[in-house]
Please model this.
Amino acid sequence: MRTTRFATMECPTARALDCIGESWSMLILRDAFQGCRRFDDFQQSLGIPANTLTRRLKHLVDNGLLQKQAYSERPPRHEYVLTPKGQELFPVLVVLFDWGSRHLTPEGTAVSQIDRGSGAPLQSMVVDRHTRTPITVDRVLLQPGPVASEQVRQRAAQVEALWKDVPLPE
Amino acid sequence: MRTTRFATMECPTARALDCIGESWSMLILRDAFQGCRRFDDFQQSLGIPANTLTRRLKHLVDNGLLQKQAYSERPPRHEYVLTPKGQELFPVLVVLFDWGSRHLTPEGTAVSQIDRGSGAPLQSMVVDRHTRTPITVDRVLLQPGPVASEQVRQRAAQVEALWKDVPLPE
Model:
C-alpha cells in the first residue's frame, strides 16, 4: 500500500525512496559498492534473516538497481551486481556516511572515507555540476515542469515565498 | 529490534539510516525544508494517517532532527522546526531528488530544482570540500579509525583489494 503511494507521488525524492525500499536496501547497496556480490556475503555482512534478504534483493533487482549474473552453470549460481542506475546512488551513500560520521559517532571514529590517491580524509559537499557552486538550502527553488499538478505549483510558490526576502548567499 | 541493530552498527551510513527512520521520515524532512511547520501542513502534504505522522514526528524530535517550538500559549500549540543536525541532511535530499529525476520520471518532469539566483536547473555532484575533486566510487577507500572492530578492518581491506589494480581517475 505505502509503496504504491510513494511511487505515484510526483516528487522525485519520494520516488527515489520508494525505488530503493527501506533501510536494509540501502545497506545492501552499500555492501555491493564495497565488493559483496553473493547472497552469503550480504547475509554475513548484515546479519539479516535469509528471507528478509531474499525479499530485499528481489526488490532491488525488480527495481533495476542490482542485476543477477550467473557465475556457475552446474550448479546454477548467481551473484548480484550493481546496474548503472544502482551505481549512480553512490553519492547518496557518501553524503549519508558523512552526515552519520559528524553526528552519530559519540564513541569515536570506527571508519572514515579517504581519497584513494592521497589518503586524505574526504568530506563531502554537494555542488552544481556546471557552476560548481555549493547547492545549499538557501539557493534552491522548485520549478514546476510540464506534467506538474496544482499541488506541485503551490509547493513551488511556498518555497519561493520562504526565501523572498532572504539575500542570496555569495 | 531492527532499529537497535542499525543504531549499534559501526558504519555511519547504517546509523544515519537508523536516525532518520524510514521513508516517511525523509519526506517529512523534505517538507520541513520546503516550509511546512505544523502537524496539519505535514498531514495535508503527505496524506499520511495521523497516528503514523505523530509517531514519525516524535522519532525525528527524539533523534534531534526536528525541534518543537511553541507558537501559541493559549491554547498551547507548537510547530516543528529543523535543528542544525536536521538542516545538514539537505544534501541527502538534493542528491536523492536528482537521482529520482534522472531515473524515475518516465512521464516527464513534474518538478525540478533550480538556482534561486540564475533560475538555471541544478544538477548535483558530490565533491570533496577541500580539493573540490568529485567523490566517485573509484576514488574512495575506507580507513579504520581508533574504535574499529575486526569486521571494519576486514571490510576496509576488501575495498582496497577491489581497486588495487584500477588506475586512479584523473
Chain A is about 45% helix and 15% strand. The mean pLDDT of chain A is 91. The first helix of chain A runs from residue 2 to 8. The CA atoms of residues 30 and 49 of chain A lie 18 Å apart.
